[in-house]
Known about the structure:
Elements: H1 12-23, H2 26-33, H3 37-40, H4 46-54, H5 61-76, H6 83-110, H7 118-129, H8 136-148, H9 163-169, H10 177-187, H11 189-193, H12 195-203, H13 206-224, H14 231-254, H15 275-280, H16 287-292, H17 308-318
Helix pairs in contact: 5-14, 6-7, 6-8, 6-14, 6-17, 8-10, 13-14
The structure holds zinc ion (2 copies).
One zinc ion (ZN) is lined by residues 146, 150, 258, 271, 287, 291.
Amino acid sequence: MSPLDVAEPVTEIQRYEALDSSIHDESFVTQRTKVPSRLLKVIPHPVAKAFRDCMPHGVNMPNFVWMAIINTGAVAAFWHFSWPGLVTAIFLHWVTACLGVTLGYHRLLTHGSFTAPKWFEYFCSLCAMIAAEGSPAFWVATHRKHHVLSDQPGDPHSPNDGFWWSHMLWFKPKVLREDEDAMIARWAPDMWKDPVQRVFHRIFPLFPILLGAGLFLLGEWMHLRGWATTGWSMLLWGMCVRMIACYHSTWLINSASHIWGYRTYETNDRSRNLWWAALLSYGEGWHNNHHAHQKLAIYAHRWWELDITYMVIWVLKKVGIAKNVCDQLPARPH
Ligand SMILES: [Zn+2]
Ligand SMILES: [Zn+2]
């Protein structure tokens, strides 16, 4: 190749001039305007339309980012395994999912299946808030609405709108603060009148964040004292893995326990008794029994149905903390 064959270098100005001339080239413009008219019409894609219908105010971004972090942490946890981390995860799973969400949010605060001193209500609320499933007032209001409108229009999480909607998509839409406050005032006025619960409602994200920081510091301290663990191990197992397990055990009640399993009672909804969901959720999976007798503290209505949460309530009754326990089983259905 001779030096004459080498193309002349194109300066930035020359590039711009070439581009500019093409923009103003009449044939180019004509060509662009010959786009078939059918492509110029805005065609509403069914997915886009469904998205707009489900999420009129867009996506709940704080929730979306939180879930992304927790899921990433749960995967990373397998590179930071330690036995103290695993034991912490199992213990905190029981504290948050059984004592907090199931016993506290659900049976005590939502349905009043027993009464307890105010300090115990707040203690259960604290246990549940570190499960990061929403504030006590939000959870109670949403669940009462579910019972009133079960599998009908207005049910916050019915599998009639699809499995994934009922399992975990239903809380992905952004909800305006005034709408959420109105929903709570309508469905949980007792919680809304309680000044402590109103404070909890405003600051509840602080509690899991503080616990995560505490677990990290505890793990680092244990590491310095010679324990076979680290701050990251305690944080990832005690928070991320534990919370993912807790989330799905709660969500399965809204999805799977309204789809699969057997029905002991003919209720006006799709609720089912699902043994494996009951095992994962400390007894909540006997969901058809619960929909039929919502105030009852016992969810196991046959001798082989296991309800761990009721066993805890039974102990609380024996030590005098739980009173007025609704534990008289109905006559066996035929
Ligand atoms: Zn239900
Ligand atoms: Zn319920």
